Amino acid sequence: MSKKRAYQTNYSHGLNPAVYDLEKREKKANTIISILDDYFQDTELSSLDMLDVGASTGIIDHFLSDHFNKIVGIDIDEKAIQYAQDNFSGRNLVFNVGDAMQIDHPDESFDIVVCSHVYEHVPDPYKLMSEIRRVLKFGGICYFSAGNRLSIREPHYNLLFLSAMPRFMSHLYLRILGRGSYYYEKHLTYWFLKKLVRDFDLVDYTRKMIYFPEKYHVDYMLKLNSAKHKIAKIIATYFYWICPTYIWILRK
After folding, report:
1. What is residue 231's three-state secondary structure?
2. E strands, 42-126, in order
């Protein structure tokens, strides 16, 4: 296999069955809605047009479509988009095969772009963010959910320290465990993520979600006042740079 980093065009087919989990995807949709509703306090969400880059099987967009004027979901994964087209439809919901680094829409087309755990999958995350900024209207925002390279447990393979290792060791780690031959995902540390989004104004929702998990519908992961919740608050307050995931609103 070529060692050149490229797209995972079949990510939904066997690599990540969670993208077909209706219950889990609905929970993620509820979090997105709660954050955007909090951000757009004086604007009706139903008046806004959204693009989801990395829409996958379309389940999240299906739930979001009840709240927004129009949603376009794109993904390089043809099987995932076919599943979305076959299972979800609506006057305001469209799914297309599309490249997040070459978005097939004019400048300033959308009020919101959702980019949820996508940057680590594309060959050039800087090109991705440039395209997102291009298609956003002036004052529009990107809902940006990003994994941290310094996470203890890598989320795609559920393996300890996989993303933090040097690349050659990550490949070897997968091969030894029989989980794959090449580690495609390329996560960034907090500092490099800040560099990645430097062309946007950043509004941080990471700490808000951790401090108030019920308000942002993440209490299924962080039960209020549980030991896990208390540890998460300590990390968010004093060791923010090792938070496993960041949720940022990026304003153009």
Report:
1. helix
2. 49-53, 70-75, 93-97, 110-116
Give rounded-to-5 percent helix, strand, coil for the chain.
40, 20, 40
Rg (the chain; Cα; Å): 18
**CB-based contacts of 28: which residues, under 8 Å, 6+ apart?**
60, 116
State whether residue 98 is helix, strand or coil: coil
179/164 Cα distance (integer angstroms) = 17
Q: How many alpha carbons fall within 13 Å on the CB side of residue 252?
A: 22
DSSP class of residue 62 equals H
Taking the whole predicted model, whether its pTM rises above 0.85 is answered as yes
Q: What is the pLDDT of residue 7?
A: 60
Q: Are 49 and 109 in contact (CB under 8 A)?
A: yes
Q: What is the C-alpha to C-alpha distance for residues 32 and 145, in angstroms, rounded to an integer?
A: 10
Q: What is the DSSP string of 109-121?
A: -EEEEEEES-GGG
Share of the chain above pLDDT 70, in %: 93
Q: CB-side exposure of 113: number of CA atoms within 13 Å?
A: 33
